[in-house]
Please model this.
Amino acid sequence: MAVLTIRQQLYRTLKQRILDGVYPPGAHLNIDIIAKEQGVSNSPLREAMTLLVKDRLVENRPNAGMYVIEITPQLYRELVDTINIWIEGAYRLCLKYGKTECLLALMEERLRALKKVIRRGTDRERIFAILDFQRCFVTATENTVFISSFGSEFDRLCLAYYYNHLGREIDWDINVQRAATIIDAVKSGLVDTVSDMIWTWSVPHFEANQIPEE
Model:
């Protein structure tokens, strides 16, 4: 097993803290403070943050420093639209190349995982499990370029979904029902129904006041 460099370790740590909400959207990532907390010099930390900028989870503001991205209504809508296009396109690829059986196997596996998380998980874990179920459309294509492109936005989508659900009264069980229904539609070859469900599953709007202040 390859040993991670300090930069890679810091990258993983910071990324997970962003996704876990330790550093919420809009939070200032003070390099001096974080370097002291992590017991490292500023240089590898800056390199790690540069990787997060490439992931578009962090932005470098001129004369201000590094900040976790803001989740705006526009960004949320753009992410949801883009991901839904990818998922629907992935479904069409599965149909074109005979990957339906692979897709169904993945969906059944993710549905079992989703049921467990909905019962016992945190809201953040539930959000990830729901999106992970949807991601199986892309995984089933076995198209490495497509999978990589989808993965490049997956973390930002998880972040946006989570902060859009804060403070909401949510019937989490309905997501299990939706997953089971979409599996039945795939089995029955109801292509238009599957496409419609992909587009109607996402929360259609963003509540900007859901993001807590630092």
The chain has a mean pLDDT of 90.
